[in-house]
Amino acid sequence: MKVSIYGSGYVGLVTGACLAQVGNHVLCVDIDHGKIEALQQGRIPIYEPGLEDMVRDNVAAGRLSFSLDPAEGVRHGLFQFIAVGTPPDEDGSADLSHVLAVARSIAEHMSEYRIVVNKSTVPVGTADRVRETIARTMADRGAALEFDVVSNPEFLKEGAAIEDFMKPDRVIVGTDNPRTAELMRALYAPFNRSHDRVICMDVRSAELTKYAANAMLATKISFMNELANLAEQLGADIEEVRQGIGSDPRIGYHFIYPGCGYGGSCFPKDVKALERTARQVGYQAQLLEAVEAVNERQKHRLFEKLSARFDGKLSGRTVALWGLAFKPNTDDMREASSRALIEALWEAGARVRAFDPVAEDECRRIYGERDDLVLCDSPEDTLTGADALAIVTEWTVFRSPDFERIRKELRQPLIFDGRNLYDPRHMEEMGFEYYAIGRGRRA
Ligand code: UDX
Protein backbone atom coordinates (compact mmCIF):
# COMPACT_ATOMS: atom_id res chain seq x y z
CA MET A 1 0.00 0.00 0.00
CA LYS A 2 1.08 3.58 -0.47
CA VAL A 3 1.49 5.83 2.54
CA SER A 4 2.51 9.48 2.91
CA ILE A 5 3.59 10.85 6.27
CA TYR A 6 3.82 14.55 7.12
CA GLY A 7 6.34 15.34 9.84
CA SER A 8 9.65 13.47 9.98
CA GLY A 9 10.10 13.81 13.71
CA TYR A 10 10.12 11.00 16.17
CA VAL A 11 6.63 9.61 15.52
CA GLY A 12 6.64 10.22 11.75
CA LEU A 13 9.99 8.56 11.16
CA VAL A 14 9.27 5.51 13.28
CA THR A 15 5.85 5.09 11.65
CA GLY A 16 7.34 5.54 8.18
CA ALA A 17 10.21 3.11 8.73
CA CYS A 18 8.01 0.42 10.30
CA LEU A 19 5.27 0.66 7.65
CA ALA A 20 7.96 0.40 4.96
CA GLN A 21 9.57 -2.55 6.77
CA VAL A 22 6.43 -4.67 6.22
CA GLY A 23 6.35 -3.89 2.49
CA ASN A 24 4.46 -0.62 2.06
CA HIS A 25 5.76 2.24 -0.06
CA VAL A 26 6.22 5.21 2.22
CA LEU A 27 6.99 8.84 1.40
CA CYS A 28 7.95 11.06 4.36
CA VAL A 29 7.34 14.78 3.83
CA ASP A 30 8.75 17.58 5.96
CA ILE A 31 9.18 21.34 5.53
CA ASP A 32 12.63 21.32 7.16
CA HIS A 33 15.26 21.34 4.35
CA GLY A 34 18.10 20.34 6.66
CA LYS A 35 16.18 17.38 8.04
CA ILE A 36 15.12 16.02 4.64
CA GLU A 37 18.63 16.46 3.24
CA ALA A 38 20.12 14.58 6.20
CA LEU A 39 17.55 11.79 5.88
CA GLN A 40 18.18 11.45 2.16
CA GLN A 41 21.85 10.92 3.04
CA GLY A 42 20.93 8.29 5.62
CA ARG A 43 21.47 10.48 8.71
CA ILE A 44 18.79 10.28 11.42
CA PRO A 45 18.12 13.45 13.42
CA ILE A 46 17.12 11.60 16.61
CA TYR A 47 18.50 8.83 18.76
CA GLU A 48 16.29 5.75 18.68
CA PRO A 49 17.73 2.22 18.86
CA GLY A 50 17.25 0.33 15.58
CA LEU A 51 15.79 3.24 13.64
CA GLU A 52 18.86 4.20 11.63
CA ASP A 53 19.35 0.67 10.28
CA MET A 54 15.67 0.29 9.49
CA VAL A 55 15.57 3.60 7.61
CA ARG A 56 18.73 2.74 5.68
CA ASP A 57 17.51 -0.75 4.71
CA ASN A 58 14.14 0.50 3.51
CA VAL A 59 15.60 3.42 1.57
CA ALA A 60 17.96 0.94 -0.12
CA ALA A 61 15.02 -1.37 -0.91
CA GLY A 62 13.17 1.53 -2.54
CA ARG A 63 10.27 1.39 -0.07
CA LEU A 64 11.08 4.58 1.87
CA SER A 65 11.82 8.04 0.48
CA PHE A 66 11.81 11.65 1.62
CA SER A 67 10.50 14.83 0.09
CA LEU A 68 9.97 18.52 0.76
CA ASP A 69 7.06 18.67 -1.67
CA PRO A 70 3.56 18.33 -0.16
CA ALA A 71 2.02 17.99 -3.65
CA GLU A 72 4.12 14.86 -4.17
CA GLY A 73 2.97 13.62 -0.76
CA VAL A 74 -0.70 14.02 -1.62
CA ARG A 75 -0.22 12.29 -4.99
CA HIS A 76 1.66 9.38 -3.47
CA GLY A 77 -0.40 7.85 -0.66
CA LEU A 78 -3.94 6.64 -0.25
CA PHE A 79 -3.12 7.03 3.46
CA GLN A 80 -2.05 10.55 4.47
CA PHE A 81 -0.60 10.41 7.99
CA ILE A 82 -0.28 13.62 9.99
CA ALA A 83 2.58 13.22 12.47
CA VAL A 84 3.61 16.81 13.17
CA GLY A 85 4.23 18.30 16.60
CA THR A 86 1.54 19.64 18.93
CA PRO A 87 3.60 21.67 21.39
CA PRO A 88 1.82 23.04 24.45
CA ASP A 89 0.57 26.63 24.28
CA GLU A 90 1.32 28.85 27.24
CA ASP A 91 -1.92 27.76 28.91
CA GLY A 92 -1.08 24.06 28.44
CA SER A 93 -3.47 23.35 25.57
CA ALA A 94 -2.07 21.68 22.46
CA ASP A 95 -1.07 24.02 19.62
CA LEU A 96 -2.81 22.67 16.52
CA SER A 97 -1.42 25.11 13.97
CA HIS A 98 0.95 22.54 12.41
CA VAL A 99 -1.76 19.87 12.20
CA LEU A 100 -4.22 22.23 10.55
CA ALA A 101 -1.56 23.56 8.16
CA VAL A 102 -0.98 19.99 6.93
CA ALA A 103 -4.75 19.49 6.58
CA ARG A 104 -4.96 22.62 4.41
CA SER A 105 -2.03 21.52 2.33
CA ILE A 106 -3.58 18.08 1.72
CA ALA A 107 -6.85 19.75 0.65
CA GLU A 108 -5.04 22.11 -1.71
CA HIS A 109 -3.36 19.28 -3.62
CA MET A 110 -5.93 16.49 -3.45
CA SER A 111 -7.29 15.13 -6.74
CA GLU A 112 -8.82 11.82 -5.61
CA TYR A 113 -10.08 10.02 -2.46
CA ARG A 114 -7.69 10.12 0.48
CA ILE A 115 -7.70 8.82 4.05
CA VAL A 116 -6.24 11.43 6.39
CA VAL A 117 -4.88 9.72 9.49
CA ASN A 118 -4.10 11.72 12.58
CA LYS A 119 -1.16 10.28 14.52
CA SER A 120 -0.23 13.43 16.41
CA THR A 121 -1.53 13.60 19.98
CA VAL A 122 -4.39 16.04 19.70
CA PRO A 123 -7.31 17.11 21.89
CA VAL A 124 -10.66 15.42 21.51
CA GLY A 125 -12.52 17.07 18.64
CA THR A 126 -9.43 17.71 16.50
CA ALA A 127 -10.42 15.17 13.83
CA ASP A 128 -13.61 17.20 13.35
CA ARG A 129 -11.55 20.37 12.96
CA VAL A 130 -9.26 18.63 10.46
CA ARG A 131 -12.35 17.48 8.52
CA GLU A 132 -13.79 21.02 8.51
CA THR A 133 -10.47 22.53 7.47
CA ILE A 134 -10.10 20.13 4.55
CA ALA A 135 -13.71 20.63 3.42
CA ARG A 136 -13.41 24.43 3.63
CA THR A 137 -10.07 24.57 1.80
CA MET A 138 -11.41 22.30 -0.92
CA ALA A 139 -14.57 24.38 -1.27
CA ASP A 140 -12.38 27.49 -1.69
CA ARG A 141 -10.81 25.91 -4.76
CA GLY A 142 -14.19 24.74 -6.02
CA ALA A 143 -13.54 21.04 -5.38
CA ALA A 144 -15.72 18.51 -3.52
CA LEU A 145 -13.72 15.28 -3.34
CA GLU A 146 -14.46 12.45 -0.98
CA PHE A 147 -12.09 11.92 1.99
CA ASP A 148 -12.07 10.44 5.49
CA VAL A 149 -10.38 11.56 8.69
CA VAL A 150 -9.18 8.86 11.07
CA SER A 151 -7.75 9.12 14.57
CA ASN A 152 -4.91 6.64 15.04
CA PRO A 153 -2.93 7.70 18.12
CA GLU A 154 0.56 6.34 18.74
CA PHE A 155 1.64 4.54 21.90
CA LEU A 156 5.38 4.53 21.30
CA LYS A 157 7.86 4.64 24.14
CA GLU A 158 11.07 6.47 23.34
CA GLY A 159 13.93 4.00 23.30
CA ALA A 160 11.55 1.13 22.48
CA ALA A 161 9.58 2.75 19.67
CA ILE A 162 10.45 0.24 16.93
CA GLU A 163 9.52 -2.69 19.15
CA ASP A 164 6.29 -0.93 20.22
CA PHE A 165 5.32 -0.27 16.61
CA MET A 166 6.24 -3.71 15.27
CA LYS A 167 4.65 -5.57 18.20
CA PRO A 168 1.84 -3.34 19.43
CA ASP A 169 -0.36 -4.17 22.42
CA ARG A 170 -3.14 -2.50 20.48
CA VAL A 171 -3.73 -0.28 17.47
CA ILE A 172 -6.49 2.26 18.09
CA VAL A 173 -8.46 3.29 15.01
CA GLY A 174 -11.13 5.94 15.34
CA THR A 175 -13.42 6.32 12.36
CA ASP A 176 -17.12 6.57 11.69
CA ASN A 177 -16.80 4.93 8.27
CA PRO A 178 -16.78 1.07 8.27
CA ARG A 179 -15.04 0.94 4.86
CA THR A 180 -12.18 3.10 6.16
CA ALA A 181 -11.95 0.89 9.25
CA GLU A 182 -11.40 -2.12 6.96
CA LEU A 183 -8.64 -0.32 5.02
CA MET A 184 -6.91 0.63 8.29
CA ARG A 185 -7.22 -2.97 9.49
CA ALA A 186 -5.54 -4.13 6.29
CA LEU A 187 -2.70 -1.61 6.73
CA TYR A 188 -2.04 -2.82 10.26
CA ALA A 189 -2.64 -6.55 9.61
CA PRO A 190 1.11 -7.34 9.42
CA PHE A 191 1.50 -6.19 13.02
CA ASN A 192 -1.07 -8.60 14.47
CA ARG A 193 0.55 -11.39 16.45
CA SER A 194 -1.60 -14.29 17.68
CA HIS A 195 -4.73 -12.15 17.65
CA ASP A 196 -6.17 -9.04 16.05
CA ARG A 197 -4.61 -6.01 17.73
CA VAL A 198 -6.74 -3.40 15.97
CA ILE A 199 -9.50 -1.87 18.07
CA CYS A 200 -11.95 0.25 16.06
CA MET A 201 -14.12 2.89 17.71
CA ASP A 202 -15.62 6.30 17.07
CA VAL A 203 -13.22 9.17 16.44
CA ARG A 204 -13.64 11.04 19.73
CA SER A 205 -13.20 7.91 21.84
CA ALA A 206 -9.97 7.14 19.97
CA GLU A 207 -8.68 10.65 20.64
CA LEU A 208 -9.55 10.36 24.32
CA THR A 209 -7.99 6.87 24.58
CA LYS A 210 -4.55 8.32 23.96
CA TYR A 211 -4.88 10.89 26.75
CA ALA A 212 -6.50 8.37 29.06
CA ALA A 213 -3.57 5.95 28.67
CA ASN A 214 -0.91 8.55 29.38
CA ALA A 215 -2.85 10.17 32.22
CA MET A 216 -3.39 6.76 33.85
CA LEU A 217 0.33 5.93 33.65
CA ALA A 218 1.29 9.37 35.00
CA THR A 219 -1.21 8.88 37.83
CA LYS A 220 0.43 5.58 38.80
CA ILE A 221 3.80 7.30 39.04
CA SER A 222 2.59 10.31 41.01
CA PHE A 223 0.69 8.00 43.34
CA MET A 224 3.87 6.04 44.07
CA ASN A 225 5.87 9.23 44.53
CA GLU A 226 3.31 10.51 47.00
CA LEU A 227 3.51 7.22 48.91
CA ALA A 228 7.32 7.36 48.77
CA ASN A 229 7.32 10.79 50.40
CA LEU A 230 4.97 9.48 53.05
CA ALA A 231 7.15 6.39 53.61
CA GLU A 232 10.07 8.70 54.38
CA GLN A 233 8.06 10.34 57.14
CA LEU A 234 6.79 7.01 58.47
CA GLY A 235 10.09 5.14 58.40
CA ALA A 236 8.83 2.61 55.83
CA ASP A 237 10.62 1.39 52.69
CA ILE A 238 8.68 2.15 49.49
CA GLU A 239 10.56 -0.61 47.62
CA GLU A 240 9.08 -3.20 49.98
CA VAL A 241 5.68 -1.56 49.61
CA ARG A 242 6.02 -1.55 45.81
CA GLN A 243 6.60 -5.29 45.75
CA GLY A 244 3.84 -5.84 48.25
CA ILE A 245 1.20 -4.06 46.19
CA GLY A 246 2.52 -5.06 42.75
CA SER A 247 1.88 -8.70 43.57
CA ASP A 248 -1.86 -7.97 43.38
CA PRO A 249 -2.65 -8.60 39.71
CA ARG A 250 -5.22 -5.82 39.80
CA ILE A 251 -2.35 -3.41 40.54
CA GLY A 252 0.55 -5.11 38.78
CA TYR A 253 4.28 -4.45 38.88
CA HIS A 254 4.45 -2.17 35.85
CA PHE A 255 4.91 1.55 36.16
CA ILE A 256 4.92 1.79 39.92
CA TYR A 257 8.55 2.80 40.36
CA PRO A 258 8.93 5.84 42.56
CA GLY A 259 11.65 8.30 41.64
CA CYS A 260 12.50 11.93 41.03
CA GLY A 261 9.46 12.50 38.79
CA TYR A 262 8.36 11.74 35.25
CA GLY A 263 9.50 13.77 32.27
CA GLY A 264 9.58 13.45 28.50
CA SER A 265 7.56 14.83 25.66
CA CYS A 266 4.30 13.05 26.51
CA PHE A 267 3.26 12.70 30.14
CA PRO A 268 3.73 16.31 31.30
CA LYS A 269 2.24 17.72 28.08
CA ASP A 270 -0.68 15.29 27.85
CA VAL A 271 -1.72 15.52 31.50
CA LYS A 272 -1.76 19.33 31.20
CA ALA A 273 -3.64 19.24 27.90
CA LEU A 274 -6.31 16.88 29.24
CA GLU A 275 -6.72 19.03 32.31
CA ARG A 276 -7.12 22.04 30.03
CA THR A 277 -9.65 20.24 27.80
CA ALA A 278 -11.65 19.36 30.89
CA ARG A 279 -11.68 22.99 31.99
CA GLN A 280 -12.85 24.08 28.55
CA VAL A 281 -15.95 21.92 28.87
CA GLY A 282 -16.58 23.16 32.39
CA TYR A 283 -15.16 20.23 34.33
CA GLN A 284 -12.42 20.55 36.94
CA ALA A 285 -10.21 17.48 36.66
CA GLN A 286 -8.98 17.47 40.26
CA LEU A 287 -7.12 14.19 40.04
CA LEU A 288 -5.16 15.31 36.98
CA GLU A 289 -4.25 18.59 38.67
CA ALA A 290 -2.91 16.65 41.63
CA VAL A 291 -0.94 14.26 39.40
CA GLU A 292 0.75 17.23 37.78
CA ALA A 293 1.39 19.08 41.06
CA VAL A 294 2.86 15.98 42.77
CA ASN A 295 5.21 15.48 39.81
CA GLU A 296 6.42 19.09 39.83
CA ARG A 297 7.20 18.77 43.53
CA GLN A 298 8.89 15.41 43.01
CA LYS A 299 11.28 16.82 40.44
CA HIS A 300 12.67 19.03 43.22
CA ARG A 301 13.07 16.27 45.81
CA LEU A 302 16.73 15.55 45.10
CA PHE A 303 17.61 19.21 45.36
CA GLU A 304 15.67 19.49 48.64
CA LYS A 305 17.58 16.52 50.01
CA LEU A 306 20.93 17.92 48.91
CA SER A 307 20.11 21.33 50.26
CA ALA A 308 18.97 19.92 53.61
CA ARG A 309 22.13 17.81 53.89
CA PHE A 310 24.32 20.88 53.32
CA ASP A 311 22.18 23.11 55.59
CA GLY A 312 21.16 25.21 52.62
CA LYS A 313 24.81 26.09 51.88
CA LEU A 314 25.44 24.80 48.39
CA SER A 315 27.27 27.83 47.10
CA GLY A 316 30.75 26.86 45.89
CA ARG A 317 29.95 23.13 46.08
CA THR A 318 30.33 20.75 43.14
CA VAL A 319 27.78 18.01 42.44
CA ALA A 320 28.50 15.02 40.20
CA LEU A 321 25.42 14.15 38.16
CA TRP A 322 24.73 10.80 36.51
CA GLY A 323 22.09 10.98 33.82
CA LEU A 324 20.64 13.90 31.87
CA ALA A 325 18.02 12.24 29.65
CA PHE A 326 14.46 11.99 31.03
CA LYS A 327 14.85 8.20 30.95
CA PRO A 328 17.42 5.65 29.68
CA ASN A 329 17.92 4.86 25.98
CA THR A 330 17.10 8.30 24.71
CA ASP A 331 18.91 11.62 24.34
CA ASP A 332 15.66 13.49 25.04
CA MET A 333 15.85 16.03 27.86
CA ARG A 334 12.38 17.51 27.47
CA GLU A 335 10.91 18.10 30.94
CA ALA A 336 13.73 15.94 32.36
CA SER A 337 14.17 15.85 36.13
CA SER A 338 17.87 16.52 35.55
CA ARG A 339 16.97 20.03 34.39
CA ALA A 340 15.08 20.85 37.57
CA LEU A 341 18.05 19.67 39.63
CA ILE A 342 20.75 21.37 37.55
CA GLU A 343 18.91 24.68 37.47
CA ALA A 344 18.21 24.61 41.22
CA LEU A 345 21.88 23.82 41.91
CA TRP A 346 23.02 26.73 39.75
CA GLU A 347 20.52 28.99 41.48
CA ALA A 348 22.08 27.96 44.79
CA GLY A 349 25.58 28.72 43.50
CA ALA A 350 26.74 25.13 42.97
CA ARG A 351 28.59 23.67 39.98
CA VAL A 352 27.64 20.48 38.12
CA ARG A 353 29.86 17.82 36.57
CA ALA A 354 27.55 15.62 34.51
CA PHE A 355 27.70 12.42 32.49
CA ASP A 356 25.10 10.87 30.21
CA PRO A 357 25.80 8.08 27.68
CA VAL A 358 23.94 9.90 24.86
CA ALA A 359 22.30 13.16 26.00
CA GLU A 360 25.40 15.35 26.41
CA ASP A 361 25.06 16.99 22.97
CA GLU A 362 21.45 17.76 23.76
CA CYS A 363 22.51 19.24 27.09
CA ARG A 364 25.08 21.43 25.31
CA ARG A 365 22.39 22.55 22.87
CA ILE A 366 20.06 23.53 25.74
CA TYR A 367 22.52 25.22 28.09
CA GLY A 368 25.47 26.16 25.87
CA GLU A 369 28.98 26.50 27.29
CA ARG A 370 29.00 27.58 30.95
CA ASP A 371 31.58 27.64 33.73
CA ASP A 372 29.25 25.93 36.18
CA LEU A 373 28.60 22.92 33.92
CA VAL A 374 31.23 20.38 32.92
CA LEU A 375 30.16 17.50 30.67
CA CYS A 376 32.37 14.51 31.36
CA ASP A 377 33.49 11.54 29.23
CA SER A 378 32.69 8.87 31.82
CA PRO A 379 30.70 8.44 35.03
CA GLU A 380 33.97 8.33 37.00
CA ASP A 381 35.18 11.65 35.56
CA THR A 382 32.26 13.45 37.16
CA LEU A 383 33.45 12.50 40.64
CA THR A 384 36.70 14.47 40.63
CA GLY A 385 36.46 17.14 43.32
CA ALA A 386 32.71 16.63 43.76
CA ASP A 387 31.03 16.99 47.16
CA ALA A 388 28.25 14.53 46.33
CA LEU A 389 26.92 12.27 43.58
CA ALA A 390 23.33 12.65 42.35
CA ILE A 391 21.66 10.08 40.06
CA VAL A 392 18.61 11.05 38.01
CA THR A 393 18.46 8.55 35.11
CA GLU A 394 18.63 4.77 35.55
CA TRP A 395 21.02 3.99 32.67
CA THR A 396 22.26 0.39 32.91
CA VAL A 397 25.89 1.53 33.27
CA PHE A 398 25.01 3.16 36.61
CA ARG A 399 23.54 0.01 38.12
CA SER A 400 26.71 -1.69 39.23
CA PRO A 401 29.47 0.90 39.45
CA ASP A 402 32.88 0.65 41.09
CA PHE A 403 31.76 1.81 44.55
CA GLU A 404 35.31 1.75 45.91
CA ARG A 405 36.32 4.26 43.27
CA ILE A 406 33.28 6.45 43.94
CA ARG A 407 34.14 6.52 47.63
CA LYS A 408 37.75 7.45 46.93
CA GLU A 409 37.03 10.13 44.33
CA LEU A 410 34.21 12.00 46.05
CA ARG A 411 35.20 14.53 48.72
CA GLN A 412 32.83 12.65 51.00
CA PRO A 413 30.96 9.37 50.37
CA LEU A 414 27.60 10.98 49.74
CA ILE A 415 25.05 9.74 47.17
CA PHE A 416 21.59 11.10 46.31
CA ASP A 417 19.82 8.48 44.21
CA GLY A 418 16.66 9.65 42.42
CA ARG A 419 15.99 6.20 40.91
CA ASN A 420 16.53 3.85 43.86
CA LEU A 421 19.26 1.87 42.11
CA TYR A 422 21.06 0.50 45.15
CA ASP A 423 20.31 -1.35 48.37
CA PRO A 424 20.49 1.16 51.25
CA ARG A 425 21.82 -1.41 53.72
CA HIS A 426 24.59 -2.47 51.35
CA MET A 427 25.48 1.18 50.74
CA GLU A 428 25.72 1.83 54.43
CA GLU A 429 27.94 -1.23 54.90
CA MET A 430 30.25 0.15 52.25
CA GLY A 431 30.49 3.40 54.18
CA PHE A 432 28.22 5.59 52.08
CA GLU A 433 25.79 8.16 53.31
CA TYR A 434 23.02 7.18 50.89
CA TYR A 435 19.82 9.09 50.26
CA ALA A 436 17.19 7.60 47.95
CA ILE A 437 13.44 8.08 47.37
CA GLY A 438 11.02 6.76 49.97
CA ARG A 439 13.42 4.36 51.66
CA GLY A 440 12.86 4.85 55.35
CA ARG A 441 13.85 7.79 57.50
CA ARG A 442 17.30 8.23 55.93
CA ALA A 443 15.63 8.75 52.51
C1 UDX B 1 5.15 7.51 27.24
C2 UDX B 1 4.20 6.31 27.14
O1 UDX B 1 4.75 5.19 27.82
C3 UDX B 1 3.91 5.97 25.68
O2 UDX B 1 2.98 4.92 25.61
C4 UDX B 1 3.35 7.22 25.02
O3 UDX B 1 3.08 7.01 23.66
C5 UDX B 1 4.31 8.40 25.18
O4 UDX B 1 4.58 8.61 26.55
P1 UDX B 1 7.78 7.92 27.00
O5 UDX B 1 7.50 9.37 27.21
O6 UDX B 1 8.72 7.53 25.93
O7 UDX B 1 6.41 7.15 26.68
O8 UDX B 1 8.36 7.37 28.36
P2 UDX B 1 8.04 6.25 29.46
O9 UDX B 1 8.96 5.10 29.30
O10 UDX B 1 6.60 5.94 29.52
O11 UDX B 1 8.50 7.04 30.78
C6 UDX B 1 7.98 8.33 31.11
C7 UDX B 1 8.56 8.87 32.39
O12 UDX B 1 8.03 8.19 33.52
C8 UDX B 1 10.08 8.78 32.53
O13 UDX B 1 10.58 10.02 33.01
C9 UDX B 1 10.29 7.67 33.55
O14 UDX B 1 11.47 7.84 34.28
C10 UDX B 1 9.07 7.84 34.42
N1 UDX B 1 8.66 6.60 35.13
C11 UDX B 1 8.20 5.52 34.42
C12 UDX B 1 8.70 6.55 36.51
O15 UDX B 1 9.11 7.52 37.18
N2 UDX B 1 8.26 5.41 37.14
C13 UDX B 1 7.79 4.33 36.48
O16 UDX B 1 7.40 3.35 37.13
C14 UDX B 1 7.77 4.38 35.06
Automatic annotation (TrEMBL):
<dbReference type="GO" id="GO:0006065">
    <property type="term" value="P:UDP-glucuronate biosynthetic process"/>
</dbReference>
<feature type="binding site">
    <location>
        <position position="327"/>
    </location>
    <ligand>
        <name>substrate</name>
    </ligand>
</feature>
<feature type="binding site">
    <location>
        <position position="269"/>
    </location>
    <ligand>
        <name>NAD(+)</name>
    </ligand>
</feature>
<dbReference type="InterPro" id="IPR014026">
    <property type="entry name" value="UDP-Glc/GDP-Man_DH_dimer"/>
</dbReference>
<dbReference type="Pfam" id="PF03720">
    <property type="entry name" value="UDPG_MGDP_dh_C"/>
</dbReference>
<dbReference type="InterPro" id="IPR036291">
    <property type="entry name" value="NAD(P)-bd_dom_sf"/>
</dbReference>
<dbReference type="InterPro" id="IPR017476">
    <property type="entry name" value="UDP-Glc/GDP-Man"/>
</dbReference>
<feature type="binding site">
    <location>
        <begin position="155"/>
        <end position="158"/>
    </location>
    <ligand>
        <name>substrate</name>
    </ligand>
</feature>
<dbReference type="InterPro" id="IPR008927">
    <property type="entry name" value="6-PGluconate_DH-like_C_sf"/>
</dbReference>
<feature type="domain" description="UDP-glucose/GDP-mannose dehydrogenase C-terminal">
    <location>
        <begin position="320"/>
        <end position="424"/>
    </location>
</feature>
<dbReference type="GO" id="GO:0003979">
    <property type="term" value="F:UDP-glucose 6-dehydrogenase activity"/>
</dbReference>
<feature type="binding site">
    <location>
        <begin position="255"/>
        <end position="259"/>
    </location>
    <ligand>
        <name>substrate</name>
    </ligand>
</feature>
<feature type="binding site">
    <location>
        <position position="158"/>
    </location>
    <ligand>
        <name>NAD(+)</name>
    </ligand>
</feature>
<feature type="active site" description="Nucleophile">
    <location>
        <position position="266"/>
    </location>
</feature>
<feature type="binding site">
    <location>
        <position position="86"/>
    </location>
    <ligand>
        <name>NAD(+)</name>
    </ligand>
</feature>
<dbReference type="InterPro" id="IPR001732">
    <property type="entry name" value="UDP-Glc/GDP-Man_DH_N"/>
</dbReference>
<feature type="binding site">
    <location>
        <position position="121"/>
    </location>
    <ligand>
        <name>NAD(+)</name>
    </ligand>
</feature>
<dbReference type="InterPro" id="IPR028357">
    <property type="entry name" value="UDPglc_DH_bac"/>
</dbReference>
<keyword id="KW-0560">Oxidoreductase</keyword>
<dbReference type="InterPro" id="IPR014027">
    <property type="entry name" value="UDP-Glc/GDP-Man_DH_C"/>
</dbReference>
<dbReference type="Pfam" id="PF03721">
    <property type="entry name" value="UDPG_MGDP_dh_N"/>
</dbReference>
<dbReference type="GO" id="GO:0000271">
    <property type="term" value="P:polysaccharide biosynthetic process"/>
</dbReference>
<dbReference type="InterPro" id="IPR036220">
    <property type="entry name" value="UDP-Glc/GDP-Man_DH_C_sf"/>
</dbReference>
<protein>
    <recommendedName>
        <fullName>UDP-glucose 6-dehydrogenase</fullName>
        <ecNumber>1.1.1.22</ecNumber>
    </recommendedName>
</protein>
<dbReference type="GO" id="GO:0051287">
    <property type="term" value="F:NAD binding"/>
</dbReference>
<feature type="binding site">
    <location>
        <position position="210"/>
    </location>
    <ligand>
        <name>substrate</name>
    </ligand>
</feature>
<dbReference type="Pfam" id="PF00984">
    <property type="entry name" value="UDPG_MGDP_dh"/>
</dbReference>
<comment type="similarity">
    <text>Belongs to the UDP-glucose/GDP-mannose dehydrogenase family.</text>
</comment>
<feature type="binding site">
    <location>
        <position position="30"/>
    </location>
    <ligand>
        <name>NAD(+)</name>
    </ligand>
</feature>
<comment type="pathway">
    <text>Nucleotide-sugar biosynthesis; UDP-alpha-D-glucuronate biosynthesis; UDP-alpha-D-glucuronate from UDP-alpha-D-glucose: step 1/1.</text>
</comment>
<feature type="binding site">
    <location>
        <position position="35"/>
    </location>
    <ligand>
        <name>NAD(+)</name>
    </ligand>
</feature>
<feature type="binding site">
    <location>
        <position position="334"/>
    </location>
    <ligand>
        <name>NAD(+)</name>
    </ligand>
</feature>
<feature type="binding site">
    <location>
        <position position="263"/>
    </location>
    <ligand>
        <name>substrate</name>
    </ligand>
</feature>
<keyword id="KW-0520">NAD</keyword>
